[in-house]
Amino acid sequence: MVATTVHLVRHGEVFNPDKILYGRIPGYHLSELGHRMAERVAEHLSGGDHDITVVTASPLQRAQETATPLAGRLGLELGTDERLIEAGNHFEGKTFGVGDGSLRHPQHWPFLLNPFRPSWGEAYTAQVARMHAAVHSAREQAEGHEAVLVSHQLPIWIARQAFENKRLWHDPRNRQCSLASLTSLRFVGERLVGLHYTEPAADLLPGASQVSGA
User: Fold this and answer.
1) What is the distance of C-alpha 41 from the center of its chain?
2) With contact defined as beta carbons under 8 Å apart, do 97 and 103 qualify?
3) pLDDT, tens only, 114-124
4) Rounded to whole angstroms, how far apart are CA atoms 67 and 41?
5) 213 pLDDT band (50/70/90 cuts)?
6) pLDDT at position 206, please?
7) What is the secondary structure of 32-97 as a DSSP string?
8) DSSP letter string over 101-159?
9) Per-residue pLDDT tens digits for 90-115
10) SS3 191
11) Residue 116's closest CA among 156, 55, 73, 161?
12) What is the pLDDT of residue 98?
């Protein structure tokens, strides 16, 4: 059986001056810093240590823009997979907080009752199902080589938790999935044999400007 690696890449920083939870809203593009992050990822993955034959992204603009420099460097057609899209969320399009955010409005409170599902958005189990299906499709496409899938923080983290047989509910502050990071899954045949996390754009991370769940 042959070894295949699938890299789950989170997109770069997004231009979001209003600090809303943009979720699946179309039109949110990378900031200037986000484009630098995308170039850094492309530089990192197009080196001689990698053998990438598949580059696929979520249909959302920020993911497509993150994947484009890598596909261009490698001369590969950029694919799109709806299964890599951001998680659905009731608070999409709103600011999320107690002060001036949506949490101060009682009509939103029922959506916070069950953090284990979670009640405010797409079920964790549904995210796992679509993300794992996308990973295995890419593994089959790139068999014996490497594939890159550009997605979003929560779906990547939930997919990782499931691959590691860990519980799906979690504290969002503890996610290991920074902007432009790589969660690399190594398979032998269909069996996952290793997982490695790297941050090729670590020195570009803005810290406080990140929006959780983006």
Assistant:
1) 14
2) yes
3) 565 675 688 99
4) 9
5) very low
6) 72
7) HHHHHHHHHHHHHHTSTT--EEEEEE-SSHHHHHHHHHHHHHHT-PEEE-GGGSPPPBTTTTS--S
8) SGGGSGGGGGGGS-TTTTTTBS-HHHHHHHHHHHHHHHHHHTTTSEEEEEE-HHHHHHH
9) 667 776 554 455 555 555 445 455 56
10) strand
11) 161
12) 45
User: Are residues 104 and 77 in contact, defined by beta-carbon separation less than 8 angstroms?
Assistant: no
CA-wise closest residue to 151 among 130, 165, 173: 130
Cα within 13 Å of Cα(21), Cβ side: 20
Give me the amino acid identity at 2: V
Report the alpha-carbon distance of residue 163 to residue 154 in Å, rounded: 14
Buried b (16+ CB within 10 A) or exposed e, 145-173: bbbbbbbbbbbbbbbbbbbeeeebeeeee
- Name the residue with tokens 């405010």: 120
> Which token pair is 17?
């001056």
Q: What is the pLDDT of residue 115?
A: 62
What is the spatial distance between Cα 94 and Cα 144, in angstroms, rounded to a whole number? 43
- Residue 147's beta-bridge partner residues? 6, 54
Helix (H, G, I), strand (E, B) or coil at 188: strand
CA 112 – CA 27 distance, rounded (Å): 27
Query: Domains (ranges, CATH) in the chain?
Result: 3-96+122-204 (3.40.50.1240)
pLDDT at 140: 98
Rounded CA gap, 159 and 173, in Å? 17
